[in-house]
Amino acid sequence: MSTETPAPSGFFSRLRDGLRKTRDGLREKLEGLFGGATLDEGVLEGLEEALLASDLGPATTAAILEPARAAFRRQGATNAEAMRALLADRVAALLNVGSPPAPVPGVPPHVTLFLGVNGSGKTTTIAKLAKRYRDAGERVLLAAGDTFRAAAIEQLQIWGQRIGADVIAHRSGADPAAVVFDACKAATARGIQRLLVDTAGRLHTRQNLMEELKKIHRVIAREVPGAPHETLLVLDATIGLNGVAQAREFHHAVGVTGLIIAKLDGTAKGGAVVAIAQTLQLPVRYVGVGEGPDDLQPFDPREFATALFS
Ligand SMILES: Nc1nc2c(ncn2[C@@H]2O[C@H](COP(=O)(O)OP(=O)(O)OP(=O)(O)O)[C@@H](O)[C@H]2O)c(=O)[nH]1
Ligand SMILES: [Mg+2]
To answer: What is the model's pTM?
Structure first.
């Protein structure tokens, strides 16, 4: 956790604070490298090591360094400031993938389905997003689609109470598709603007989980026209590049439309965000930078890239 006090409302300083561990790792290496007035081949090699150490992965690191190498070849040498700008531009470009979120439907509800392995941060992220929507004056309903893990339903209900959102829940062990069916019906009947669907992160097997998520997705698509409007995969930033394989598995099974990277504040592997977005060609929608209800930031590629290298 951070020891600096972040500016309360400054988006950029909150993001910088969340990225602190990743940036400190990079900065230490970059400052050593960029200490001299000009850059040489040795600096490029050092740069490659620094980027790899922040979990950018070999392919993304190569893609980031390509324009830097070209500039170096063309000019023989280039200065540290120009190099930082090149790197930030490139990272921003690599993060600029996928489509923007679908527009809010003319007829409510807008439905978001949340996926992710156990402990990745789904329920907390749902609470944070629900609070954003509530603060914007929207009516929010939560669906307790994780009926498998002990106390998962209660956890969502407690968040619902804190935030002022109703929760549709059945008993522990009930069929999640039936919960989601009821939630879709209730959201439509009550004119709810945002329905957020929580799901299990673990069942008896991973195959069971994927089958269940497909079923839930089908129920939503059948009950609400055009839904789910977003299918967001919540990844734990602390697993770094392992997120690539996880994202691939969920995307293949269910069809993900965007990513949420939780726990960015707890890792020096924040570079993996770039690798995951680029490899899967999926946009990052939000990042989690703490455990509190306000610790969620809309994701902006340019701001992220700037925060990474500043
Ligand atoms: N530091 C930090 N912790 C977070 C963040 N997001 C979630 N957490 C913590 O991560 C832990 C797991 O979060 P949950 O939201 O319960 O994860 P989940 O994916 O719903 O887990 P299951 O219900 O077991 O599948 C909790 O202790 C959260 O407080 C974040 O952005 N930063
Ligand atoms: Mg959960």
So the answer is: 0.92
